[in-house]
Structure formats: structure tokens, C-alpha cells
Amino acid sequence: MSRISRRFAALREQNRTALIPYVTAGDPNPGITVGLMHAMVEAGADIIELGVPFSDPMADGPVIQRASERALAHNVSLRDVLSMVREFRAGDDDTPVILMGYLNPVEIMGYPAFAEAAADAGVDGLLTVDIPPEEAGELLAALRPKDIDPIFLLAPTSSPGRIQRICDAASGFVYYVSVKGITGSSSLDVEGVAAKLAEVRRATGLPIGVGFGIKDPDSARAVARIADAVIVGSALVNRIERLADEPEAIAPALAGQLAAMRLAMDQG
């Protein structure tokens, strides 16, 4: 059983919803990332989603695009991100870490080499938004022996057949994109999300995380009532951008945001 599966099992026993924050590795500089990861865990994060900087992040809105640009200005590579996870593991061997990004850096490294390096660093999951399950066979064959969960996205427009195909390929959890659009989109229709999640649950017993459009304690609380995980990204990355010239203030600021969301989620 992977760290991700163990974490969700423990949360189910506690009747709690997972809080999964996203930040881009190396944003605004590489030296801040590991400390920020620890601060987010202390503030209530259950799983960390760590973005791998990429020059053409097609699923991401301008906030996360600019985060990748700031990290790439420091030449942060996939191998650098793996080194950050390894450093994080020196102080935290329990919190699952998911890498989120695009296929190109993984493909360049090679699937077996990536899986070996990621497992050695302590990575638990991989979300590559631009590879569909039909084309992921070789990647899945490399990840699964290393207990690295492949995470796939579902959308409001996903058909029943598409939902089943994606759920069959996934492990750990499935990621439901709550809005039609890119990260940072503004509208969140909780009733519509709830109806779609009921459809997804008919296709899988895996936990379901919901992301895109979650910005504050109220939206986190609303999604926590219907999902197994609340995923928040752009709201955090936007705060990092505003504090880019004050890096020492970033960890306390994000910890405060996450603690408020965690409290709202737990209070229901």
C-alpha cells in the first residue's frame, strides 16, 4: 500500500477530508521550497502536490504559469525537484508527495529511470496532465512496481465511458477538475460538482479529490462536505507571487491560509 493510500485510509478512520496544497517547486527561489513544504504540513496539509516547473504549462492559468517562469529563471529542473523531495524526506517520512507537471521532462529522463529516481527520493504519486491513460501504458508499467500512484484528471465534461477508463488506470485517488477551464478559474458550482462526484463514485472506490476554484475557507468547507480531498493551488501561488520579494514571509503566510481552510473543513 502506498503512502497515499495509507493516508486516505487513516483520514477515513478519523472522518476527515484530506487537504492537499499545491506549490511550484523553486518558486520564487529554490531555497524556500523544502521549508515551505514542512510549514504546510504543520498547518494541516495531509498530502503535498509539488509542481515541476515547465515552460508551456497548458492546463495552468497565468498565476501558476508565472510561478513556473520564476522557478525556471533559477534553472530548476526535474532532478532538482527530486532533490527537494529527498531533502523533505529527511525530516518527514509520512506525508505523501505528488509531483504535478507535464510529460516532457519525465520522457526525457526515461520512464524507468524516472521511476527509480522518484522512488529513491520519496515521491508517492505522479500527475502528468498531458498524457491520457490510452498512451500511458509504458509509464504505468514503470511507476507501479515502485508504488508510485498515477493520478489522472477528470473533468465536468467527462463521459461515463471516459470516467470508467480513467478510474481503471488510476490509483491513490482521482482528481476531479471542478470547473471548465484552467487553474485559477473563478466559478465553483458545488451542487454541480456533487452531482458529478456521485457519477464518478459509481465507477470507482478510489478517493476523489477536487481542485480548481477553491480559494478560501468557505469554498474549502463546501467541497470537503462532498469530496475526499480538497486541493488548493492558485490561491496559494498567488500569495507567493505577492510576497516574492519577501521570501521569509511566504511560509507563515501560506501556513495561515491553510490553517484557516483546515479549521473550516474540520468544523464542517
UniProtKB/TrEMBL annotation:
GO terms for molecular function: tryptophan synthase activity. The active site is at E49 (proton acceptor), D60 (proton acceptor). Keywords: Amino-acid biosynthesis, Aromatic amino acid biosynthesis, Lyase, Tryptophan biosynthesis. Pathway: Amino-acid biosynthesis; L-tryptophan biosynthesis; L-tryptophan from chorismate: step 5/5. It is an enzyme of class 4 (lyase). The keyword Lyase applies. The alpha subunit is responsible for the aldol cleavage of indoleglycerol phosphate to indole and glyceraldehyde 3-phosphate. Belongs to the TrpA family. Tetramer of two alpha and two beta chains. This is Tryptophan synthase alpha chain. It comes from Candidatus Sedimenticola endophacoides.
